[in-house]
Amino acid sequence: MEPKKIQAPLSDDDVMALKAGDTVLINGVIYTARDAAHKKLVELMDKGEDLPIDLQGQFIFYVGPTPAKPGQAIGSAGPTTSGRMDAYTPKMLEKGMKACIGKGLRSQVVKDALKEHKGVYLAATGGAGALLSKKIKKSEVVAYPELGPEAIHRLEVEDFPATVVNDAYGNDLYEEGAKQYAR
Amino acid sequence: MRELAASTITDQVAEMCEEANIYLGEDVFSALKDALETEESPTGKEVLKQLIENVEIARNEQIPICQDTGFAVFFVEWGQDVHLTGGSLEEAINAGVKRGYDEGYLRKSIVKDPLFDRKNTGDNTPAVIYTDMVPGDKVKISFAPKGGGSENMSAVKMLKPSDGEEGFVDFVVNQVKTAGPNPCPPIVVGVGIGGTFDKVAVLSKKALFRPVGESNPDPRFAELEKKIKDKINDLGVGPQGFGGRTFALAVHIEDYPSHIASMAAAVNLNCHACRHLEREL
C-alpha cells in the first residue's frame, strides 16, 4: 500500500480520513515534547495561562534527540515510549492537538480522548533515529531551552514516515495486527 | 606483574562508547536481514527495511543508530596478574564515558537522583560496572549502551521450583507479551535463571551481551531458547508491534545454580539496536 502524504497542521477532516494501519509521510511543521515539557504545558493549562506554542491542529512528536553535530539539522531522532505521556495527552487534545507521534501502547483513556476530540496517534519506527533524522530539515528550540534534549523544538519535516496506530474511530493497529499474525 | 595505566582504559572506553552507538554489530545486522527474508507481514517488512537502512545511514554518516544512547553498562573481566596504575577502575571508565559521550555527540540520559530533582548529570555518568576477577594477565571490557524503553519492560520473578519448565516459559513469554510494542521490536530477550534475586537480574543483562546467533552451551537450555523464541513469535506482535512474525530476533538464557527453595528468573529486554562491543587489553 502506497503511503499517504499528509500536511501539518491537520483539520478534523484530515484526521477522519486516517485509519489504523495507514502509512503516512508527514510534511510541514511539527513540534517536539516529551515528559518534562508535557508536565510544564499541563501545569500552565491547569493555571489557565497561555502556552508557549499554539496547539491548534498540531502534531507533537515524542522525541529527545542526540546533539546535532556541526552542519546537521538535528542528531539521531527516533520516537520515545508514548505511554509516559498518557496522563497528559487528553488535555493536549482538549487544547487542539490533532496528532501525536511516538511508539508503544496507549491507555484506554487516551484512545477514548482521540475519539472524543478527533485526534490520531501515530508510531514512527522506534530505534530508527538515524533514518528519521534525515527527514528533519530544520530544528529550532521554541520553548524550555533549559530542558536540553527535552526542550520543545519546532521541526520542519519532509516525507517523515509514520504509521497510524490509534485512529479517531477507536481502531487499534497493535491489537488488530497481532491478531492477524498470531498462531 | 603486568601494569596497565588507567588512562589506557579511559581511551579505550571513550572509543567504545562512540563505536557501539554508531556501528551496529554484524550479528544483529545479519539477524535483521534474515528476518526481512522470513517476515510475512508487508508492514513488518517495511519496518525491517527501515531498520536496515537506518543501520546503513548510521554507519555511513556517523549518526547514532538510536537517539537513546543509553545507560553505559560494562562487564569487566580483570586478570588477577594485572596491576592498574594511575587511578581507580571506576574513575577510568567514567572518564572514558564522559569523553566518548561528549566527543561523539551522544545523548546524555542519566539523572543524578532517581526520585527528587532528577537533574541530568550532563555527561552520561556514572556507568553501571560489574567486575569479575579472573586468572591471567588480560583485561576484557564489554560495553553495552542500554536503552531505557526496553529496560522499562524488564522483570524479575522468584518462581517456585514446582513451577518447573512450564512456569518459567510462561513467565518469560507473558513478560514479553505485556511489553508488546514498547521495547521497539524485533527484540533480543535476555533471560536469567537460578542464583539469587540480584544474581538473576545480572544474568539476564549478561545474556544481552551474547552475540545473536549463539546458543547456551547446555543443549537443554539451547532447546528451550528456541522453544521460547517460537512461542514469542507466535504472539504475532511483529516488528514494531504492527503485526507480523518477527517479534524476537533471539532469546538468550544464562543459568546459574539455584538454592533448593528457589527458582529465580529474570527477563531483560533489548530493542533491535542491541549494541554491544568487547575489547581485550
Supply the key terms:
heterodimer, A: 183 residues, fumarase, 5-stranded mixed beta barrel, 6 helices, B: 281 residues, alpha/beta, 4-stranded mixed beta sheet, 10 strands
Sheet with most strands: strand arrangement of chain A: 2-3-4-5-7
Highest CATH level, the class of chain A: Alpha Beta
Strand content of chain A: 25-35%
Determine the oligomeric state from the structure: heterodimer
Specify the helix fraction band of chain B: 25-40%
Work out the count of structural domains of chain A.
1
Uncertain spans of chain B: none
Map the helices and strands.
The complex is a heterodimer of chains A (183) and B (281).
Chain A: E1 4-7, H1 12-16, E2 23-32, H2 35-47, E3 59-61, H3 89-94, E4 99-102, H4 108-117, E5 120-123, H5 129-133, E6 136-143, E7 152-166, H6 173-181
Parallel strand pairs in A: 1-2, 2-3, 3-4, 4-5
Antiparallel strand pairs in A: 2-7, 5-7, 6-7
Chain B: E1 2-5, H1 6-22, H2 26-38, H3 42-61, E2 71-79, E3 82-85, H4 89-103, E4 128-134, E5 139-146, H5 148-151, E6 155-159, H6 164-179, E7 187-193, H7 197-207, H8 219-233, E8 248-255, E9 263-270, E10 277-280
Parallel strand pairs in B: 1-3, 2-4, 7-8
Antiparallel strand pairs in B: 2-5, 5-10, 6-9, 7-9
Helix pairs in contact in B: 1-4, 2-3, 6-8
